[in-house]
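Hi support team,

I submitted a single chain yesterday and got back a structure, but I'm not sure I'm reading the token output correctly. Could someone confirm the output below corresponds to the sequence I sent? I've pasted both exactly as they appear in my results page.

Thanks,
R.
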Amino acid sequence: MPNSPGHLGSLLESFLPWSGLMIAVLLGLALLRRSALALVALTLPVAAWTYLFGGLLLPGAKPGAHDLVVVQHNVSDENTDPAGTVRALADAEPDLIGLQELVPAALPVYERTLAPRYRYHAVVGTVGLWSKRPLTDVQKLDIKPAGITEPWSRGLRAVIRTQHREIAVYVAHLPSVRVHASGLASSWRDESAGLLGKAIATDKSHTVILLGDFNSTTDDRGLNPLTSQMNLPARGFAFSFPAAFPLARIDQIMARSATVGPIRALPSTGSDHLPVIARITLG
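Hi R., thanks for writing in. Yes, this is the structure output for that exact sequence:
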């Protein structure tokens, strides 16, 4: 579908797995009317959906060897239980935790509650990274769209040291998108994704891990600057937003020169997002 006008292609791609519901309805109507022609016509969309998403309905492979477990979570700037949120994340025992929407009033709670298990952390603006391994070379990442004039800092880059190598870790929160009658308003998100993609493309580190709330799914062409150069999770819907009734996974875990295993959502916290977790095997 063309992305103009109104970024309609991106809008459809953001909820692409749910297209199966429309196919199911059409299939039911075809059976109800006993229309052989309609059944034949539905063969192509059924085959396309099954090719893209059918495998995700099968039982996943058992977890194998891994080098890092990482958690990504937008904790929400309206979270009324930051301490409980932190405990839920730490109980999953990840090596790395990337967080967004860290507001000044709640930041000390996150820092204090995570400190016993995570000795190393970095916060830039409203994003942060907690690690069990030493962090070095912490930098602010400029992914601010030109049209945003108010203070806005939603990206960081740091380096962690493992027994195998040093790894560049990015934590980012791309601008929100809005759905209007005219379509999807995503220009700022797309511009920010482009800036983030350029930063990663020029990063000289062999291995890169990217954690973030990208306000879209990996099917959305607006994230092509990232998805075209990063390895994506192996399988799993793992819808993360909204937490009350998850419809899409807009919280992402990606890597370069490493394999991202099955991604899954963790139980609800005090946020309007669900946390997501994945195992990463270094290449």
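A quick pointer for reading it: The longest strand covers residues 166-173. Let us know if anything else looks off.

Best,
Support desk
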